[in-house]
Design brief:
The complex is a heterodimer of chains A (298) and B (370).
Chain A lengths: L2 H30 L7 H20 L1 H25 L4 H19 L14 E4 L2 E3 L1 H19 L1 H11 L1 H6 L4 H27 L11 H11 L4 H24 L5 H21 L1 H7 L13
Antiparallel strand pairs in A: 1-2
Helix pairs in contact in A: 1-5, 1-8, 1-9, 1-10, 2-3, 2-4, 2-8, 2-9, 3-4, 3-8, 5-6, 5-10, 9-10, 9-11, 10-11
Chain B lengths: L8 H7 L5 H4 L15 E6 L9 H16 L3 E6 L6 H12 L4 E4 L5 H10 L4 E5 L8 E6 L1 H15 L4 E6 L4 H17 L4 E6 L6 H13 L4 E5 L4 H9 L2 E6 L10 E7 L2 H13 L6 E4 L6 E3 L8 H16 L9 E2 L5 E3 L7 H4 L9 E2 L5
Parallel strand pairs in B: 1-2, 1-3, 3-4, 4-5, 5-11, 6-7, 6-8, 7-15, 8-9, 9-10
Antiparallel strand pairs in B: 10-12, 13-14
Helix pairs in contact in B: 3-10, 4-5, 6-7, 6-11, 8-9
The chains are: A mainly alpha (298), B alpha/beta (370).
């Protein structure tokens, strides 16, 4: 196939991977601090609706994306208060946040279902090429998260909190504040991922717009073994499988579409099994206190 | 969430001897339902939010028509987003036990819950869309969507420059396959070289995937797109990519002001008015209706101004031919994708054969998932 044949495929893969990537990076940071937030899908939906409402109200795409991220932060704050201050179960609260987010966005979004919005304009590079600002944001975010976790002192502190909150506390680190910040960052990313779907990718608002992408993002974090670089590769893989199977179908190539659709999940199971077989890797990358409530006075 | 199951009827129908249900169920003996007290309480159960276009939206237009025609003789209540499991039975029973004399259940998956409730409330009248099981107080109804698909295929065939149309489809069940084939045959009738490329997204509702599939089809040379999924994403993608689009369920022109050539639309207004009138007259009896364009249950949205008058006239003629029974979309000789003859010249597919359709006709590109 010529270059012009591959370009739309590459662009499609990048676009399909972006919401998964952004949401997964946010969840990765939250999980590295030891908090498992299963509410990604709900935060994405609320972010998507808020972004669409703001952008279709004429405030512009940047404002829409920002509003979407803030809406995700709002829902994440509720989650953080419940799990970090009230010590409620992270799993139960995460599921509740997903249900709340889906219901809330469906209810509040009824009037936006019929509205239309033009997709975001590309930033031109010349020569007929251009790039999508949110796709580039996702790529930059990957680098930033990698640098933060692997090369900065603050990242080291975050990882320490995720490994052993009691030890971190004994060292005088503000464990709860750090976890709050990590959860809020996760919410902002989920909201931004939702915003990307609503104002850029589809661009539309309907109930259940994210169609399970929040759950794929959660799987992606595990698939990537809590590493940003692998998260990026995983997002490309997840996005790429979808796009390639569409192209194969339209070309008339006999691929069982269901099989290709299943591949990412199969890969996740395989990776989980491999991690489980190698205790060293598991210890090196899985936050040891993931999902466990911790309180300084408990 | 939008639920897929309503359409799986045909899959089940195909797998059971009940497939013949649509075509030839012996009509149960007339159970007399006396004239109801006024106002007649009518309940509607919807599987998804009403929204602004789509399957449920069209049923709700029918509901509004009943309200407009019968005024205070009826009292209508709607419950939307009722999932097809235990919720459905609860909602239908709630209607039946609080004096609703007529209940319309508008999704395939309501079939078994509805039959259970109907058995317990033999005086209530129940109407079930797209199911295949009747009872003395349960009537069923569906529409021949494929007739409108054939006409939109003609439109696509005349408007396409590349001769390639793209079709975004949800699941390979006979109802969807019937639509693809009818569209292909319509397109082929005006352009023998025409091709329809199909992409299965394996979801009834996933705007992201529908958009990706639509963009893929455009990248591979399709310049007219249509879909058998639940969102408006394909029409919007066509608008963005400068391709033509043909909507489904509802007129989707506002989602693609430049792209939307027409749409294959569903219409329940006439049917709902007729049933309500029969119930009010005390003349209702369970029936099994599979209505087409002739019955006003399927139609075409207004054509885009860019469609040349001569093409519009052709579509109108063919539409009249279908109404008059001169033209059957699935008329012999019919060849499958591999070129094997399915039926010879002069023969036609029976309703039973239509409801079991699991092959592509000649001209469709792609492999049907098994």
């Amino acid at each position: 196939m010529s270059l012009s044949g591959w370009l739309p495929i590459l662009a499609g893969v990048l676009a399909a991977a972006t919401p998964l990537l952004i949401a997964a990076l946010g969840e990765l940071i939250a999980e590295k601090s030891g908090v498992l937030n299963l509410g990604v899908e709900g935060m994405m939906l609320v972010g998507a609706l808020t972004a669409f409402a703001v952008a279709s109200g004429g405030a512009g795409y940047a404002a829409g994306a920002l509003a979407g991220a803030l809406a995700g932060v709002g829902l994440a704050a509720l989650f953080a208060w419940l799990t970090l201050n009230c010590l409620a179960s992270q799993v139960a609260c995460g599921l509740a946040i997903t249900m709340l987010g889906s219901g809330l966005s469906a209810y509040a979004g009824r009037d936006y279902v019929s509205r239309t919005l033009d997709g975001m304009a590309l930033i031109p590079l010349g020569g007929g090429f251009g790039f999508d600002p949110l796709i580039v944001t996702g790529l930059l975010l990957t680098v930033l998260v990698w640098y933060f976790l692997q090369r900065s002192r603050a990242g080291l502190v975050l990882r320490a909190v995720g490994e052993s909150p009691a030890t971190a506390h004994a060292l005088g680190l503000p464990v709860r504040c750090i976890r709050w910040a990590a959860v809020l960052f996760g919410g902002a990313c989920a909201g931004l991922a939702g915003a990307y779907l609503a104002i850029d990718y589809t661009p539309m608002w309907v109930e259940g717009l994210s169609a399970g992408r929040g759950w794929i993002a959660l799987a992606l974090v595990v698939f990537a073994g809590w590493r940003p670089g692998r998260t990026l590769l995983g997002a490309w893989l997840y996005g790429g499988v979808g796009i390639l199977q569409f192209h194969a179908q339209a070309l008339g190539i006999a691929v069982p579409a269901q099989f290709l659709g299943m591949l990412p999940y199969l890969a996740t199971i395989v990776v989980l099994t491999l991690i489980a077989r190698d205790p060293l890797t598991q210890r090196r990358h899985t936050p040891a206190s993931l999902g466990q409530p911790w309180h300084p006075h408990a | 969430m939008f639920s897929p199951r309503r359409r799986q009827l045909l899959q089940f129908a195909a797998a059971t001897p009940l497939a013949a249900a649509f075509a030839s169920v012996p009509r149960p003996a007339r159970a007399a339902f006396p004239k109801p007290e006024l106002p007649l309480k009518v309940g509607y159960v919807y599987v998804s939010p009403i929204g602004d276009a789509g399957w449920t939206y069209q049923h709700d237009l029918g509901r509004k028509a009943v309200e407009a025609s019968f005024g205070d003789k009826v009292m209508i209540k709607v419950i939307e987003s009722v999932s097809e499991g235990a919720d459905a039975e609860r909602v239908i029973r709630e209607f039946a036990s609080s004096g609703y004399g007529l209940v319309f259940a508008t999704s395939f998956g309501y079939m078994n819950p509805l039959l259970r409730v109907a058995k317990q409330f033999p005086k209530g009248i129940f109407e079930h869309a797209t199911g295949y099981r009747q009872a003395p107080n349960v009537g069923i109804y569906a529409a021949r969507y494929y007739e409108a698909r054939y006409l939109t295929g003609i439109l696509a065939g005349r408007m396409s420059k590349s001769g390639v149309a793209g079709y975004v489809a949800a699941f390979p069940i006979p109802e969807v396959v019937m639509g693809i084939n009818a569209f292909m045959l319509g397109m082929k009738s005006v352009n023998p070289q025409a091709q329809v490329k199909v992409i299965w997204v394996n979801a009834w509702f996933d705007p992201g995937k529908e958009r990706e599939a639509a963009a893929t089809l455009v990248a591979q040379g399709a310049d007219v797109l249509t879909q058998h999924t639940d969102s408006t994403a394909v029409v919007q993608t066509a608008e963005d990519k400068g391709a033509y689009a043909i909507g489904y369920h509802s007129d989707m022109s506002k989602y693609g002001p430049k792209a939307h050539l027409s749409a294959a639309t569903h219409h329940w207004e006439g049917y709902y008015r007729r049933v309500v009138q029969q119930v009010l007259d005390g003349s209702w009896a369970p029936d099994n209706v599979w209505g087409g364009i002739k019955d006003g249950m399927v139609g075409l949205a207004p054509l885009h101004p860019a469609v040349p008058a001569e093409v519009g006239a052709l579509v109108a003629t063919k539409k009249q031919d279908i109404i008059d029974g001169r033209l059957l979309p699935f008329q012999g000789p019919l060849f499958d994708q591999a070129g094997r003859q399915v039926i010879g010249a002069g023969a036609k597919l029976t309703d039973d054969e239509l409801l079991k359709m699991n092959y592509y006709v000649e001209g469709v590109v792609g492999q049907m998932p098994k």
